[in-house]
C-alpha cells in the first residue's frame, strides 16, 4: 500500500483495523498484508459495481417507462372531423374516440417495428431512419457544443460568484446571474439575434445550416441558461466548502488561492455539480426548438415540431394528422441523450468520491 495514498490507508485502517489488532501475528509479513489489502480493494470494487448497477438499472427502467408512455400517448387516435354548420358557417371540431382504432395503431406500430425492422415512412415518403440520421446529425453538434460550453463557463462563473462576495462582486457576480435568469429565454434570444443581425450581418450568415460554422451560434444561445444554472449550483457548493477545515489547513500552509480553488474545492464540489448534469441536458434540449426555429436551422427539434403538424387556425377540410413514428423516434433519441448523461455522471461521481462508493 503506497504512502502517497492517505485516503486509501484511512479506509483500509477503518475496515481492517480490528482484524489487525486481534491477530497481529497472522498479518505480520508484508506479503500477507498485501493480500489483505487487495482483498479489501476487491470487496470495494464489487460494492462499487453493485451500487452502480442498481442505480443504472433504475435509470434504464424509468427511461423505458417514459418511452412506453410516449408511444401510448402519440398513438392515441386523432381522427377528427372539421365541418361548417349553419348560416354563419360555424366551424365544428368533432372527435370520437375508438378503442379499436387505438388498438390497431399500437398493433401496426409494433408489428412494423418487429417484422420490418423499421419505423416506417414519413409524410415525405422517406424512411424515418434516414431523416433521423439527417436531422439529428445537425442537432447533435449544437447539443454537444452547448453542453461543453455550459459546463466550462458555468463552473467558471460559479467560481467567480463564490470568490467575490463584495458589493462590486455581487453586481458582476451573483447579481448579474440572477438578472439574466430572470429574463425570459425567448426575449433574450430575440435581443441577441437583433443585435447580431444589425452589427454582424455582413460578416457571418446567422441563418440556416449550410455553413460549417452554422451550429456555433445556436450552440452559444442554447448554452446561456444551462451555464447560469450550473453557475448557481457551483457557487452554492463552493460556499458550503468555504468553512471546511481542509481549506484553513491549506491556507495555513501558504498554498495559492487558485491552487486551493481548482485543486481541492472544485474536486470536492464535483459531486453536487454532477448531480445536476441531467438537468443541464434537459435545459439544453428544451431551448433547442426555440433556437432552431428562430434561426431556420433544420435540426432534430425543428423536424420534431414539424411532425406535430401544428396549425394556427381551424378550417374546413384541414388535415390534422401527425407523424407518430417521427415523434416517437426523435422523442426517444432526446430522452436517450438525457439517460446517457445521467449514467455517465453517475459513474464519474462514484469513481471520484469515496462517499459514493468510489475506489
Can you describe this structure in just a few lines?
It is built from 15 helices and two strands. It is mainly alpha-helical. Strands 1-2 form a two-stranded antiparallel ribbon.
Would you list the SSEs in sequence order as H and E?
A: HHEEHHHHHHHHHHHHH
CATH superfamily grouping of the largest domain: MetI-like
Main CATH class of the largest domain:
Mainly Alpha
Major sheet, described briefly? 2 strands, antiparallel
CATH topology of the largest domain, by name, is MetI-like fold
Instruction: Estimate percent helicity.
Output: over 70%
Membrane topology: Multi-pass membrane protein
Family: Belongs to the binding-protein-dependent transport system permease family.
Pfam families: BPD_transp_1
Keywords: Cell membrane, Membrane, Transmembrane, Transmembrane helix, Transport
Description:
- With 359 residues, the chain is mainly alpha-helical.
- It has 3 domains: 29-75; 76-117, no CATH class; 124-357, MetI-like (MetI-like fold).
- The protein has helices at 6-22, 30-74, 99-115, 128-163, 167-172, 174-182, 185-200, 216-222, 224-241, 245-252, 257-268, 270-275, 277-294, 300-307, 324-352; strands spanning 80-85, 90-95.
- A two-stranded antiparallel ribbon has the order 1-2.
- It is globular, with a radius of gyration of 28 Å.
- The model is unreliable at 1-9 (pLDDT under 50).
